[in-house]
Each structure stands twice: as C-alpha cells, then as structure tokens.
Design a protein that fits this description.
Helix content is 86%, strand content 0%. It has helices at 3-9, 11-21, 23-28, 33-67, 72-89. The protein is built from 5 helices and no strands.
Length: 90
C-alpha cells in the first residue's frame, strides 16, 4: 500500500512505470533519447535497490517478529534450509 502513492503520484514513479513498459513507450512519453540509456539504467538499478531493501526488511520482520527474538534454531529451519534448497534447485 505504501508503494501506490510512490508509483502513481511522483515523477520517479512515472519513470519507473514508463521504463518498465517498454523503451518505445519511454521515448514516446517524452524521455529524451540521448539521456534515455543513462536514465533507464538508473531507474532499473534504483528499482532493484528499493525492492531488495523491502525484501530484506520483510525478512528481518519475519525472523524477529515470529517469536520475538533471534533464535539460531529458528533461523536454521525457516531461512537457511529453504535458501539452500532453492539454491540447489535453481
């Protein structure tokens, strides 16, 4: 719910939506073609950074909020083993 105003009410959100749609849509929306490559890469990297931070925050909330403390056995069972299985599977 917090991302909705960011994506729909700010210039940064407009750029994220346009660059995510297609390069032709970005040029059509008024992003100049000479700065498009730098702007596109900057938007993509910022979006990846923000999504990674939100995923990390969600992981911290899961680990610290489930039982109220950081327990090594809890981390082994709920975080480490599924991560290793995904690593091997993928």
């Amino acid at each position: 719910m917090a991302e909705n105003p960011l994506l729909h009410k700010t210039f940064f959100g407009f750029n994220v939506r346009v660059v995510g749609s297609s390069p032709k849509a970005a040029v059509y929306a008024g992003i100049k073609s000479d700065v498009y490559d730098r702007l596109c890469l900057r938007i993509i990297w910022l979006t990846l950074l923000i999504s990674g931070e939100l995923a990390g925050l969600g992981g911290v909330c899961k680990v610290l909020g489930a039982i109220g403390q950081l327990n090594p056995a809890f981390i082994l069972v709920t975080v480490t083993l599924p991560s290793l299985l995904l690593l091997l599977a993928g």
